[in-house]
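Researcher: Hi, I'm a grad student and pretty new to this. My advisor asked me to get structures for two proteins we've been looking at. I'm not sure of the right format, so I'll just paste the first sequence and hope you can take it from there.
Model: That works fine. Here's the first sequence with its structure tokens right after it:
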Amino acid sequence: YFSCFFMQSPLQEKKGWSRAMTSEILRNEECNPNLLKKKGLELLDAGKTNEAVECFSKGLVYAPFDSLMRYWRGRKLIGREEYTQSASDLKLAALENPEDWECWYYLGVACYLSGMYEEAKVAHANSKTLMKKYGVNALPATTDWYWMICMKLGQPEEAAKALEDITPDTPTEDGDYLCRVLLYKGVLKPENFVEECEKNCKNPERPRIYHLMLTYGLANYLHYQGRDAEAIPLLKELAESPDNRALFAVKQSVQDLDALGVSYTVPAKA
């Protein structure tokens, strides 16, 4: 049955699952990887991430090369800060689905957060190529990560080159990433950057996330400009945020402050 798992991209397959009463069926077929996968996807839809990860883990015992379960377990392990294990799952998922930009994108994220920058660079390069090939409106997002990777590797010229094909008119579903890339490129200025970009937030359900993402972009930019005195307060605002602890911007800020040797306090209820 392994071959049937490699036909669709993770998101396509996820959307195709019905909402059947999988739990009842699983009581009789606990070793069936198809049912374990289906149950895991239903748990994700219900917001029960940890339970979904455990379900996928069990399913992978019976179908270790199932790329869909690898993808979703790997992606959700990022939120649990299990970055190396996440990268391991996502690398296998990407190799099983080499034309799926999301596998490469999240592999790049996991590798970046685990400090495997060269591997992250390859992953985001593949992601960008596939986005262009299939007309995916997410180029600013993968370009942002690629820029950060190059800056981490001490390659500012390559980082700048990566920004060349991004313009204010670049189609995107992530306006926060587009603003950040335009900041790195010099099109937008750091003065009042967050406030000005927030005025153009098109998704009313994401204002807080938008704010945090823009704030991290500004802090990161200021850091690479040698302006840590301005960057550190912004990083502390993010690291001490009582909400959205799974957001990449928050996790990156924590890592950046640790690297700078700057202390911060996470609220007790976070």
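Researcher: Oh nice, that was easy. Here's the second one.
Model: And its structure:
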Amino acid sequence: MTFDTLGLSADLLRTVAEEGYEHPTPVQAAAIPDVLAGRDMLAAAQTGTGKTAAFVLPILDRLRPHANTSFSPARHPVRALILVPTRELAMQVFESVETYGRTVPLRATVVFGGVPIEPQIQALRAGVEILVATPGRLLDHVGQRTVNLGQTEILVLDEGDRMLDMGFLPDIRRIIELLPAKRQNLLFSATFSEDIRRLSSTILRDPVTVEVAPRNTAAEDVRQIVYPVDRDRKEALLAHLIRKQDLRQVLVFTRTKLAASRLASILDRQGLDAVAIHSDRSQQDRMRALEGFKKGEIRVLVATDVAARGLDIEDLPHVVNFELPWQAQDYIHRIGRTGRAGATGDAISLVCIDETDLLRGVQRLLKVAIPWAVEDGFIPDKNAEPRPLGRGRGTEGATGHHPHRKPVHAGDGRRRR
């Protein structure tokens, strides 16, 4: 299948071709015709599957009849509102709107927190048809009466599951109340959790369901491996693996902002050029760190799940779970940042005895045992006692799988041979 078969306008097809794309991804092939037809949609796709273009391209086509070159702000009301959970994702979606819409005279802007609000106010008052926003900052503008959503025709909720995880549901409901009742609604989510299904039932009307990836699967091109290690030797093992394997562009996940800052500082002092990004860092610092990482100037980027959601780094070769996530589903989100678009990647997990329940939860979700390896010089103490992680058991119904022993096939109780 090619983009020519999806019903997009000729100039958008030329733009897509100029960007080097000939064949749509599965989510694009499934979503674009129905979005063009004005249908509501509930779509699930793994990170890195091209879902942003799956809604940006048809939105540009749908709003094309309203495009004009008038200087009057009244001629440029907000017609499409795209809500996203993080600043980084907001910037990336906005960049996609600008890239694909360069031949369509529709105005667009992006608003998010952590930066001065005045430039955003000026852009909104000049009039925009497409607005990309994080919920909190959008409500700031609503409170200052610098944005009017009364003519919005299309609402997109991107990364819906993450917005719910981050507690945005009350904000989303407030925003929806400001929109016209008659509109097109598109909800994109990495998973169809029960919370997402409940939300979709309240805002979507007779939606098309698009689910292009099997539920709870990890990217096939990602090589996964677990290194058992004592909890107080994780930093040393990570530094050792980076040097031994000469790893470059390593995205490392921790569970907390404090852990991210501490780990980045330790690695940086050892000459490994590491930087942490999390919500306590200024937007400028985060952008600078991300740019340095993309260019190869920063070797190790340490991030929390919230900060890393939406990061779009092409050909990312290595993801490291310095700490396993509380939710097994987040493991899939994390490692889905590598092994994209046919490229291979590595997902390394450093697991101590305290994380046995979390590891078992991940393997049960994947329905596969993750291969493991013990690194010479870092053989864990078999007499170590686990200690609570602070949030109780990591996964519902997990059992005490010991990472220092051979993993068990999920669900069958047999030793892996």
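Researcher: Is there anything I should tell my advisor about the second?
Model: You could mention this: The first helix runs from residue 10 to 18.
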